[in-house]
Write a structure and sequence with these properties.
26% of the residues lie in helices and 18% in strands. The protein is an alpha/beta fold. The protein has one domain: Alpha/Beta hydrolase fold, catalytic domain (Rossmann fold, 3-Layer(aba) Sandwich).
């Protein structure tokens, strides 16, 4: 990677993963962003909460790092662990149902632990990557939720 970045210093780096791989993508993304000046884009699927409030602040305020977490329906893994852990980045909530529009939340705002992020209200079947792919492909080619966020900045 160092050889490629030396030859192409403006290269944007992308990191992705699902489930445990999603959590690792956050850790690898912040490590890259702290070590390199390059723009780092983390796009993950079914990511559990990764760190404490201090870690979330570090990730969310790093100028060359953008984390977008994709959560499918009521995926239980995206809701745990609950106490002492925080989500990082922006949340994109997806569902393949035609009457449910995808929704994006900047910095995970407006998500109370006892409402739709309560692990007791989650579903293990919504965690399968096949469900994520079906939902991503069910809304045509326009993906307005990627650029338009609900909530405060």
């Amino acid at each position: 990677m160092e050889a490629v970045l030396k030859r192409y210093p403006e290269t944007k780096l992308y990191v992705t993963g699902h489930s445990l791989g999603a959590a690792l993508s956050v850790l690898f993304g912040i490590r890259l962003a702290l070590k390199l000046p390059n723009q780092v884009q983390v796009i993950n699927f079914g990511c559990p909460k990764v760190g404490n409030a201090a870690f979330a602040k570090l990730v969310n305020t790093k100028d060359n790092l953008c984390v977008q977490r994709v959560a499918h329906k009521r995926d239980i893994i995206t809701r745990v662990p609950n106490l002492g852990y925080n989500h990082v980045g922006h949340t994109i909530q997806i569902d393949e149902a035609s009457d449910v529009k995808p929704c994006a939340f900047k910095w995970h705002t407006s998500r109370h632990a006892m409402t739709n992020w309560n692990p007791m209200m989650g579903s293990g079947s919504d965690h399968r990557m096949a469900g994520y792919l079906k939902a991503l492909n069910s809304h045509g080619t326009k993906k307005p939720w990627v650029t338009k966020y609900n909530g405060s900045s």
